Amino acid sequence: MSSVRVLVAALVLSAGVGGDAAGAAQTKQETALLAGGCFWCMQAPFEKVKGVTSVVAGYAGGTGKNPTYDDYARKGYVEAVRVTFDPAQIAYAQLLNVFWRQIDPTDLGGQFVDRGPQYRSVIFYGDAEQRRVAEKSKHELQESQRFGKPIVTEILPTTTFTPAEEYHQDFWKKNPARYEEYRSHSGRDQFLAKVWGAERKP
Questions:
Q1: In the chain, what are the domain boundaries?
Q2: Stretch 173-200: mean pLDDT, rounded?
Q3: Most buried of 70, 92, 96, 131 (most Cβ within 10 A)?
C-alpha cells in the first residue's frame, strides 16, 4: 500500500513540475526599449496595447551613474520607456509600428515642443534579432515616403536603463488634467493626426 502511495505521489509531482514548466514557457516575456521624447507621452499609448504587460518610464543610453530627472540630460541619457510584452500576443515588429505612430522620426533635435538630445528618438535593441527587425522597420518607413524626409531615428544597442522617479510613472493616470494640457500644447497629436490620419492606430 505504501509503495502505491509513493508511486501516485511521484506521478502527481511529475505532472505538477511539467505543468509549471509549460506555464513558464507560455508566459515568457520580452522587452523593448524605446525613446520618443517625453516619456509621459510614450508610456500611455503602449499601456493600451494588447499583449503589453508593463511600461516603465526611465532614462536610457547614458554613461553617468544614477541619473535623475535633474541631471539625466547632462549624463547623456534620453527619456525612454521599457516595454515588457508577451511575444505570443504581439510581435516586436508590431510594437515598432506603434512606436512610429507616436513620434516625428525626422527630427534630430528633439520631439515636438521638447528640444535637446535628451528628447531625440532612439530604438535600443537587446539582441541581433531586435536589431534586424528595427533596421527593417526603419527602412520600410523610409521607403514609404510618408514623412517626405530622411528617417533619423537612431538604432543603438541597449546599455543602461534606470527607471524614472515614481511621480513620473503613469503620469497620465495620476495627473490627467496636467497631462492632457501638456500633450495638447506639445504639438504631438496635431502632427501625428496630419501624418497618419485614420492609420494612426496600427
A1: 28-199
A2: 94
A3: 96
Tell me the fold of 28-199: Peptide Methionine Sulfoxide Reductase; Chain A (3.30.1060)
* Kind and range of the H or E run holding 30: strand 30-36
Question: Which three cell numbers mark 74?
Answer: 547632462
Of 199, 45, 35, give the one whose Cα is nearest residue 108.
35
- What's the predicted TM-score (pTM) here? 0.85
Other CB atoms closer than 10 Å to residue 3's CB: what's the count? 7
Q: Cα–Cα distance between 89 and 162 in angstroms, integer?
A: 26
Residues annotated catalytic, as ranges: 38
Give yes or no for residue 18 having a pLDDT over 70: no
Cell of 29: 516575456
Strand-strand pairing, 121-125 and 154-157: parallel
Mean pLDDT, the chain, as a whole number?
89
Average pLDDT over residues 4-15: 37
User: Strand pairing of 154-157 and 161-163?
Assistant: unpaired
Is the pLDDT assigned to residue 133 strictly greater than 60? yes
Smallest CA-to-CA distance from 191 within 103, 123, 109, 124 is with 103
